[in-house]
UniProtKB/TrEMBL annotation:
PROSITE patterns linked: CITRATE_SYNTHASE
Domain of life: Bacteria
Pathway: Carbohydrate metabolism; tricarboxylic acid cycle; isocitrate from oxaloacetate: step 1/2
Known catalytic reactions: oxaloacetate + acetyl-CoA + H2O = citrate + CoA + H(+)
Cellular component terms (Gene Ontology): cytoplasm
Lineage start: Bacteria, Pseudomonadati, Bacteroidota, Sphingobacteriia, Sphingobacteriales
Record flagged with keyword Transferase: yes
Coiled-coil parts of chain: none
Gene Ontology terms for molecular function: citrate synthase activity
Keyword Transferase: yes
Protein name per its UniProtKB record: Citrate synthase
Gene Ontology biological-process entries: tricarboxylic acid cycle
CDD domains linked to this entry: EcCS_like
Similarity annotation: Belongs to the citrate synthase family.
């Protein structure tokens, strides 16, 4: 079979060509379609960024209005899907539900199932997925806390509608808080794409077998769940809480993270590609200070996070390995201040990453990429004769 190059974890193997996201890990640069992440986070809305990622250009006013209107026509999910929410035990992790529900959309919207979809079918599926995701996410939340589900109100913009369905109540007028809308937009933008990370590569891999978009994205959601990837935002808060309850001795926990005989790692630290700093973490740290100040919240774990960062950044172990805070380090503190429970954090990451997954799936299909099928270096037994049961 010829010579196979082994690269476990694809540390140095390009799996595709892509024109969506540029990332320079040495310089700490991240750009979507050429636009710096700093400018997008400051000036645009999440829906604008979603359009940019999926279609390649920032939308004109008319294009954005048209897409927002089209999305507003699809924000409901099929009423029968409510039965799924009733079927889960109340303590189910939201990520498992989200993956199953997104995969199930393929059953309710079968135009997605054509293995060679027309442009119109693909457009419709992309639109439906973007439109229905906030409804699914907020309904998972509502079910978990035992509150009645809130139906979308299309007078709201995309992010506001999500916040309304999540934090609104049937019994009172919902007061939209511009601080939350702004913070949510920023966080979703910062998570919107990150080139060939584990979940995105999964979406492309699954999609490469001509699998439909819903199922491909469901696979991405599953990949994102793990604590080494998107699940790190939940793991960070749990770690900070543990450190707080242990007396707040940051040096002790940094020592544990350095100890090779201890499986503990500093969650929210380190990145496969960033070896200077994570530009998203810089923006999120500042946003965290702003949002907590504006909401008048004093979260003791923020102080622990800052001390942990300071100690680690001055420690030879972290310096020599170029380990810096990543996107997940401060994001959970903001989510918590906004009112989200810890186990919803990774779901919010998924909501943000959705346009990236869609853009990457679309790009792969348009470029007619071949099915993903890595090779291996076989290390097992070469050839053996079958041994009958009585002789084993
Ligand atoms: N704490 C302590 N040591 C670490 C950490 C950490 N967080 N991250 C890496 N190291 C050490 C690691 O032990 C290794 O040391 P040595 O060379 O002595 O064996 C060295 O640094 C290189 O690490 P690696 O595991 O080979 O690097 P990787 O590129 O395979 O892994 C990573 C990247 C993000 C999985 C890893 O840094 C990690 O586990 N971080 C904690 C989890 C986390 O925050 N994940 C979120 C990533 S960013 C957003 C996202 O993708 O969702």
């Amino acid at each position: 079979s010829g010579y196979i190059t082994l690269d476990s974890g694809y540390k140095n193997t390009g799996a595709t060509k892509s024109a969506i996201t540029f990332l320079d890990g040495e310089e700490g640069i991240l750009r979507y379609r050429g636009y710096p992440i700093e400018q997008l986070a400051e000036k645009s809305t999440f829906l604008e960024v979603a359009y940019l990622l999926i279609y390649g250009e920032l939308p004109t006013k008319k294009q954005l209005e048209d897409v927002a209107y089209a999305i507003s026509r699809h924000t409901l999910i099929h009423e029968d899907m409510k039965k799924f929410f009733d079927g889960y035990p109340s303590k189910t992790h939201p990520m498992g539900q989200l993956a199953s529900l997104v995969c199930s959309l393929s059953s309710f919207y079968p135009e997605s199932l054509n293995p060679n979809p027309t442009k119109e079918e693909t457009e419709l599926t992309m639109l439906k997925l973007v439109a229905k995701m906030p409804t699914i996410v907020s309904w998972i939340f509502k079910k978990a806390i035992g509150h009645p589900l809130m139906y979308p109100q299309n007078k709201f913009d995309y992010v506001s509608n999500f916040l309304y369905m999540t934090f609104g109540h049937r019994t009172e007028e919902y007061k939209m808080d511009p601080v939350l809308v702004d913070a949510m937009n920023k966080l979703l933008i910062l998570h919107a794409d990150h080139e060939q990370n584990c979940s995105t590569s999964t979406v492309r891999m699954v999609g490469s077998s001509d699998c439909n978009l819903y199922a491909s994205v469901a696979a991405g959601i599953t990949a994102l769940w793990g604590p080494l990837h998107g699940g790190a935002n939940q793991a960070v808060i749990e770690m900070l809480e543990t450190i707080k309850n242990d007396g707040g001795d940051v040096d002790k926990w940094v020592a544990k993270a350095k100890d090779k005989n201890d499986p503990f790692r500093l969650m929210g630290f380190g990145h496969r590609v960033y070896k200077n700093f994570d530009p998203r973490a810089k923006i999120i740290k500042k946003t965290c200070d702003d949002v907590l100040a504006k909401l008048g919240i004093n979260d003791p774990v923020l102080g622990i996070a800052k001390r942990l960062e300071e100690v680690a950044l001055n420690d030879e172990y972290f310096i020599s390995r170029k380990l810096y805070p990543n996107v997940d380090f401060y994001s959970g503190i903001i989510y918590r201040a906004m009112g989200f429970p810890t186990d919803m954090f990774t779901v919010l990451f998924a909501l943000g990453r959705l346009p990236g997954w869609i853009a990457q799936w679309k790009e792969m299909r348009e470029n007619n990429e071949p099915i993903g099928r890595p090779r291996q270096v076989y290390t097992g037994e070469i050839a053996r004769e079958y041994v009958s049961m009585e002789n084993r």
